[in-house]
Amino acid sequence: MTTTLTLEQAATASEQPLVLVVEDNEKNARMMIAMLSGAGFRTHVAIDGLEGQRCAQELRPAIIITDLQMPGMDGMTMTRALKDNPQTAGIPVIATSAHALSEHREAALAAGCCSFISKPFRLQTLLSEVAHAMAAQFAGV
Length: 141
What we know:
Blueprint: H1 7-13, E1 18-22, H2 26-38, E2 42-46, H3 49-59, E3 63-67, H4 75-84, E4 93-97, H5 102-111, E5 115-118, H6 123-139
């Protein structure tokens, strides 16, 4: 059985869920924060995978949105580490990347990401993927 939540239902279900944005590009991070905040989410930003991993363990966000290519620890390495940790394994991770080839998408999904969004993306695309990931999480999928 598939459970579908609207974005508003997902946001209300946890009273402003926290979204961790892991993005080294300040402009992209600010854009995502504006989109997510406008939809009723709280946000926190980490500038690389290592900081993202630490924040995920400490803050336990409802969802993580990560760039795949960052200096230091990249998004795929961070996702693998989070999925290997029982404390963070259940947090859905959405990958973003300017690389739109199917091999990049497949690699992100193989690393443990639940979704992949090519940059640049539209507001509705981001919010739809967040709602879908949260609905799957609430449904126990």
